[in-house]
Amino acid sequence: MLLSTERRDPESSSRRSNHTSWELFDNQATAFEQRAGLPEHYCRDIANSVIEIGQVRPNDLILEIGPGTGQIAEWFERTSTYVGFDLSGGMLREAQRRLGNTARNGSLVQADANASWPLASGSTRVIFSSRALHLLDHEHVAGEVFRVASDEGAHLVLGRVQRDRESVRARMAKEMIGRLRQHGFEGRRGEQQNQKLIDSCCSRGAEDRGVKHVARWRVTTSPRQSVESWRCLSGLGGIKVPANTRYEILDEMEAWAEREFGGLDRGIESEEVYAIRSLRIPA
Predict the structure, then answer these.
(1) What class does CATH assign to 10-163+188-216+272-281?
(2) Phi then psi for 92, rounded to 5 degrees?
(3) Is the model's pTM score more than 0.70?
(4) Of 208, 21, 16, nearest to 131 (Cα)?
(5) Model confidence over 168-225: pLDDT tens digits?
(6) For residue 102, with 0-12 CB atoms within 10 Å meaning exposed, 13-18 middle and 19 or more buried, which class applies?
(7) Would you kindly state where each structural domain of the chain is located, as residue ranges?
């Protein structure tokens, strides 16, 4: 079997992963796509690019870590054998609704990626994650990537949204991380954490194949949209934050954005790019 038969305890899994925020996604699962979803018509292009990079054959397995609401997963499931796992039961329920109960090639599993992955060694052709691996321990992830990678070789593919540094979302996120630090908390910056994972994999023998831009689109966003999306969360910056501290930081952010952008509701247009970075895991 590709999937491990080990029985997994969600509570003990959460304890192992208490330094991440995956369980925080339960409360935002139903509204996640509205807050942070990808443009629907580009999700198939992203999946096809991952399949092409990984040179996936009909019976090869694609593993997705943190499938979210299944926006990309549904296109994997149509063309390949697919397993997606996530610590958030809420996200998995949303993904299951999208894939439906008649999915023939796909499996969704609740599991902690900071613990042993529920897959057999040497089973996986592609390990893919979109905007999730920065929440995890990079050394553990690197070790599990090499363990589950196919004996014939595999690919690790990381997907992320790149934003102009002067865009509303990028400036708001940078300021929020800075204010978290002022309050004694260290938020997780996706690009920096992903680079640690890439370095760890390369030190084990992986080959960095570089970055490919799969899709780009224009968005118009306001500072209020960022603040309101953060108010829906029980944490900030990918970590748990006490409620009183979170409210204080968000109030500070509103005041800062009012000054910096000339109003919370001022819409500013910018470009966003979906980029994937791939690493070849040797045979």
Answers:
(1) alpha beta
(2) -65, -35
(3) yes
(4) 21
(5) 999 999 999 999 999 999 877 667 788 999 999 999 999 999 999 999 999 999 999 9
(6) exposed
(7) 10-163+188-216+272-281
